[in-house]
Design goal:
Layout: E1 3-10, H1 17-27, E2 31-42, E3 47-52, H2 55-66, E4 73-76, H3 82-95, E5 100-102, H4 119-126, E6 132-133, H5 137-144, H6 151-163, E7 168-171, E8 181-186, E9 189-194, H7 208-221, H8 226-243
Helix pairs in contact: 1-7, 2-3, 3-4, 5-6, 7-8
C-alpha cells in the first residue's frame, strides 16, 4: 500500500484539515499519516480560534514518521505562519519528496486569516519543492498579484505562479460565477477541467480545497499522471459534496 503524509491543521468538525485528508486517503486506498500544524476551534460554519504548533515540533512530527515510513506523496495544507513554511522548505531540501501537493491556505472560508503576513512570501519560496499547487481564486490572486475575473485571468495567474517554481499549477474556479472550470498549467500548456455547480448551504462546501488536494496527492502516490490524478480528484470531490447532507 502507498503511504501519503498530510501536513495541515486539525479541524475538529472532521470536514477539513488533517481529519478530512485522512478520510480521503482511506477512501482512496492509501495509508495516511498526519503532522498537525495547528489546533483550531471550529465547526462546519466558522473558525473561533487557532493555536499554532511550533515549527520545531512540526519538524519533529515529520522526522519521527520518516524513521519508519517512506512517503509516496505529501499534501501540505494550513501552515499558520511563515516560520513553518521556511522550516518545511529547508526540510524538503534534505528529504526530497517526489509528489508534493500544496493547498496554499491563506484564510478560512468564514473569514479569519490562517497564515500570517509574512507567510505568503515564504509560500512562494516553497513552490520549487512542489509538484502541484492548488490555489482557489483568492489564493491565486495573492500568489500571482493580479485580479481574476475569468478563465483568461486564471491562465495568466497560473503562468505567473508556475514561474515561481511550481511544476504544475491547478487554479480552481469554484469561486467564479457560472459553470466551474479548473485550469491546469504546466510547461507544456493548459488543460481545462469542467465541473458541475452544486448547490446547498455554505457549510456543505467546507473543506473542499483540502479534499481536492489530498485526493490529488493520493492518486499521484498511486502512480497516476498529474492530469489523470486531477480528473479523478475532481470526480471524488463532487461525489463527496453530493454525499453531504
Amino acid at each position: 500500500m502507498k503511504n501519503v503524509l498530510t501536513i495541515a491543521g486539525f479541524d475538529p468538525s472532521g470536514w477539513a484539515g488533517v481529519s478530512a485528508d485522512l478520510k480521503t486517503f482511506a477512501d482512496l486506498g492509501v495509508d495516511g499519516a498526519g503532522a498537525v500544524t495547528a489546533l483550531t476551534a471550529q465547526n462546519k460554519s466558522r473558525v473561533t480560534g487557532v493555536e499554532p504548533v511550533s515549527p520545531k515540533f512540526i519538524r519533529k512530527e515529520i522526522t519521527t514518521l520518516l524513521e519508519t515510513t517512506r512517503f509516496d506523496a505529501v499534501k501540505i495544507g494550513m501552515l499558520g505562519d511563515s516560520a513553518v513554511a521556511a522550516m518545511l522548505r529547508r526540510l524538503f531540501k534534505k528529504v526530497g519528496f517526489e509528489n508534493v501537493v500544496l493547498d496554499p491556505v491563506l484564510r478560512a472560508t468564514s473569514g479569519p486569516r490562517l497564515l500570517d503576513a509574512g507567510g505568503l512570501s515564504e509560500l512562494k519560496r516553497l513552490l520549487p519543492a512542489v509538484r502541484v499547487v492548488t490555489p482557489n481564486i483568492d489564493e491565486a490572486e495573492a500568489l500571482a498579484g493580479i485580479k481574476i475575473t475569468g478563465i483568461a485571468d486564471m491562465e495568466s495567474a497560473a503562468r505567473k505562479i508556475h514561474a515561481l517554481g511550481a511544476k504544475t499549477v491547478l487554479v480552481t474556479g469554484g469561486h467564479l460565477a457560472g459553470a466551474p472550470v479548473d485550469v491546469l498549467y504546466d510547461s507544456k500548456g493548459f488543460t481545462h477541467f469542467k465541473g458541475v455547480r452544486l448547490k446547498g448551504r455554505p457549510e456543505r462546501f467546507h473543506g473542499t480545497g483540502c479534499i481536492l488536494s489530498s485526493a490529488l496527492a493520493a492518486y499521484l502516490a498511486r502512480g497516476q499522471s498529474v492530469k489523470s490524478a486531477t480528473k479523478a480528484a475532481q470526480k471524488y470531490l463532487i461525489e463527496t459534496i453530493k454525499a453531504r447532507k
